[in-house]
Amino acid sequence: HRHLVDVDVFSEEDLYTVLEEAVRMEEVMKRPLKKVPALRGKVVANMFFEPSTRTRTSFELAEKFLSADVINWSSSGSSTAKGESLEDTAKTIEAMGVDAVVVRNKQVGTPEYLIKKLNGACVMNAGDGARAHPTQALLDLYTAWRHFGSLRGRKMAIVGDILHSRVARSDIYAFSKVGVQVVVSGPRSLVPLHVFDLAEYEPDVRKAVKGADMVYALRIQRERQEEGLFPSIDEYHNQWGINEEVLSHASKEAVVMHPGPMNRGVEIDSFVADGDRCLVLDQVKSGVAVRMALLFLYLAGGGDR
Ligand code: CP
Against a cut of 0.90, is the pTM above it? Predict the structure, then answer.
């Protein structure tokens, strides 16, 4: 693949190619001198039109560890604030000799739009609207794979606001592709029909997590919801919040995951978020290795490390 739009074009072999490359990148990160020259002479522009902590900083670190030159662009403080279009902004950045554009935008389809408008720079999707977040799915897969050793035959329960979640869409695809049974749970009003192709829906969270190896809590995305959230935050917390009692229905070895940022006391209790079974910080750490692997595979063609 020349661009990274979503994981739904990845075969199982493609997914494992990224995971195995990420293992090698994790080794690089353990060295006293973390930098390798793989992307020396390449320029990467990180263009974030939506807020981000994890994705933006881990892409930047990954690019720097691979010795790329990095431009960090954000909509505030740039000419976008003066009304410049996405097309003109992207072409302006590309004219400076950029090899790759990492983009996050509220608008679904931004990566494909840029692929059409740009003259060949590699486009990487860092989250487009509620549709896709491929690098998050890959780092989630990597975290779970490193933890369990093998994933085929395991069960994952994804709990929360599936409707507005680009993470859920990409995760459901990636985990089911490698043989994980995916069950989603949450209020029916927050579960879109498309999930039923690849995942079961179980409204009762205790039944959904029964025997699950991975319990994946999603953030309630208040910023993407219309007025009058249903159910209310309190109702949501009481029925679907992940706490120790809910977890007691999962497998004894079950782990808890969350893409961040977390709403503590809403979709996840602090006791669980800070507990031994929570892999949230492993996910963050994996994010750097996985993004290094992706940048390496897409920009250096898997050549010298
Ligand atoms: N998981 C995730 O995408 O986090 P950020 O919004 O902080 O990048």
Answer: yes
